[in-house]
Write a structure and sequence with these properties.
Elements: E1 26-27, E2 49-50, E3 60-64, E4 71-77, E5 90-97, E6 104-108, E7 115-119, E8 128-137, E9 140-144, E10 148-151, E11 161-167, E12 173-178, E13 191-198, E14 207-211, E15 215-218, E16 226-235, E17 238-239, E18 246-249, E19 262-266, E20 269-273, E21 288-295, E22 302-306, E23 310-314, E24 321-329, E25 332-333, E26 340-342
Antiparallel strand pairs: 1-2, 3-4, 4-7, 5-6, 5-8, 8-9, 8-10, 11-12, 12-15, 13-14, 13-16, 16-17, 16-18, 19-20, 20-23, 21-22, 21-24, 24-25, 24-26
């Protein structure tokens, strides 16, 4: 757009002042001669000149909160380059505890800054601060934003609810819970921690599993053992309170031994078959069977595992054999069938 100097300049003057230009804008200038006959051709443009001034615009959308324990997080919208009005642009962040008369100030010498974190271990959770953000450039300081109130970080204040679980096997427990509602914690819940420990030991000795959803699988546990379980939420500031502990007993190996065992001896081979062991509700699922056999009472023991309810053993004739069968589970071996004596072939 064309801007005219409002007052005419006398013919003998070689300079003029242009006022009320926008700061931090590139301008070109031309000069036109005027006499009684009329207006002449304009000169060729000058080189571009950028105007400068102290900043006139303060940051907007100043807010904050969250962060880790002992942190005050302050955020704002950066001032666009065309409104920075000069070089060496930066921000002045000022804050004070609510009720204090003294501002704490820090300078951020970056035009792109949009966040400042003040760290002090003595800051209590949910402490109120008054906060304002100002600007400056090489020609001076601009104005501050309006004062806003910002809270320091706080851990979750409540525990997860409706925590329950079930023993999946002798070594695994599944745990479930309801998530903490979004409105009840000022900060976003980023994870949950499940604590579990054996009955008779202390919670301080608990093992821990961290998950981002509302279900956890506890594995590598002892069979037929009572475990106490508790869950707590975590946000960027730390861990919240634990839910009331509840107990679950891991499953045990089946008590029922393999039954109705039948065997046939033919040409140095023993054919064995038996009934499948059905695990009870509190027992681990049967994954297979272990067949242990040896020559009489003193011979070398051989172990064979199978997922069927029959097996064929190749053994030399001329010796008595003792055989026993056990169910296999994740939580260990089930009850043995007891020794079955197979007499030597005549």
């Amino acid at each position: 757009s064309l801007i005219l100097v409002p007052d005419s300049v006398p013919g003998q003057m070689m300079h003029a002042t242009v006022k009320d230009l926008n700061p931090w804008v590139d301008y070109e200038f031309r000069v036109v001669a005027i006499n009684s006959v009329g207006v002449g051709e304009p000169s060729t443009p000058s080189k571009q000149i950028r105007t400068k001034a102290a900043p006139k615009v303060a940051p907007v959308n100043v807010s904050g909160g969250g962060g880790a324990r002992g942190e005050l997080v302050i955020i704002w919208e950066p001032v666009p380059e065309e409104q920075q009005s000069g070089e060496d642009f930066g921000y002045v962040v000022a804050f004070r505890p609510l009720g204090s008369s003294t501002w704490i100030q820090t300078v951020l010498a970056s035009p792109d800054a949009s966040r400042y974190i003040y760290r002090n271990d003595s800051i209590a959770p949910l402490s109120q601060f008054e906060v304002k953000v100002g600007v400056y450039n090489s020609l001076g300081e601009g104005q501050f934003s309006r004062v806003v109130r910002v809270l320091s970080a706080e851990e979750p204040s409540e525990a997860p609810s409706r925590v329950w679980g079930r023993a999946v096997s002798a070594s695994d427990i599944e745990v479930y819970w309801e998530p903490i509602p979004p409105g009840s914690s000022k900060e976003k819940i980023i994870a949950y921690e499940v604590l579990f420990w054996e009955e008779g030991s202390q919670q301080s000795q608990a093992d821990r599993v961290k998950v981002i959803n509302t279900m956890a699988l506890l594995s590598g546990l002892k069979g037929s053992t009572v475990y106490l379980i508790s869950v707590r939420a975590q946000n960027s500031a730390g861990l919240g309170p634990c839910s009331p502990a509840f107990n679950i007993t891991t499953k045990k190996p089946p008590r029922q031994p393999p039954g109705n065992i039948e065997w046939n001896l033919t040409n140095s081979k023993i054919f064995l078959n038996w009934e499948h062991v059905k695990a009870m509700e509190n027992e681990s699922e049967v994954t297979g069977y272990k067949v242990v056999y040896r020559q009489n009472w003193h011979g070398r023991t051989t172990v064979l595992e199978t997922n069927k309810t029959s097996v064929e053993l190749q053994i030399p004739s001329g010796e008595d054999y003792l055989i026993e069968i056990k169910a296999l589970t994740k939580g260990g071996d089930g009850t043995s069938s007891g020794p079955i004596r197979i007499p030597k072939m005549s």
